[in-house]
Amino acid sequence: MNVKRFFIIILVIALLALGFSGIYTVEHNDAAILKQFGRVVRVEYAEGLHFKIPFIQDTQAIYVGSRIYDIPQSDVITRDKKSMIADDYVIWTVTDVVKYYQTLGGVAARAEERIDAAVYNATKNTISSMTQDEVIAARGITLTNMITEESNSDMAGYGIQILTAEIKALDLPEDNKEAVYERMISERGNIAAGYTAQGEAEAQKIRNETDKEVAITLANADKEAETIIAEGEAEYMRILSEAYNDADKADFYNFIRSLDALKESMRGSDDTLILDRNSEFAKLLYGNGIQDTPAAARRTVTETETAAE
Questions:
Q1: pTM (global) more than 0.90
Q2: Residue 6 predicted with pLDDT over 90
Q3: Which CATH superfamily is domain 67-171 in?
């Protein structure tokens, strides 16, 4: 009875081991390679629990998510024989699990060795095809795209895609960094001076055009004002002519104007006026003739004449 129970326990354990050996799971961002006698028969991407043939098939998990690899700094030479130091980093992923397993064994360290060589060669080839000024001008998206494209052409056979191979730092060796910076500053200063001169020329052109338009506008305004004044004076003379178109009105007008002139001549502290008895002002004060004026007026005129003599 004890032997029978022992065999039953052994059988249960064996069945459990057989059952567990036929189960495998796929985690998030993983793919499972199902191998049979060392040959890949299937790749499972769906997350969760899956089954395999116990003891005949085995599995290997392959991470297929994006990874970042920081490549060591390297010296590169530009087309004009200038030395530069490139510091790259790479974001890569597995796109063909079977090819990745067959060529690199699914080992990330081996993959990064190949990536290191591919990105270095791409960086060296790209920068060596450009002058230092062109490299500096192309920093950013342009240079990144060129290096990424060439790197991918080397990595396609490994089932790997480089999503981006970007230069995070592109510097100059310490021995010629200062000279290059000074030359760059001088070139940028020349460009800025050119833009400034062009802007000043455009500004002067605009000012000249504006002054011309202002002068024309003022001249037209003066001309129009003179025309309006002339028309107003003509209208004024016409109205006066109509108002004094007979002898009586004309005499009255002359009388008023003479009074205005006399009033202007008497301004100031000196209110003494010496007149000739035949002057227009005397006629204005005493009538058309001295004999027609009152006695007091004749005495005033006589005294005036005596003072004049």
A1: no
A2: no
A3: Band 7 domain (3.30.479.30)
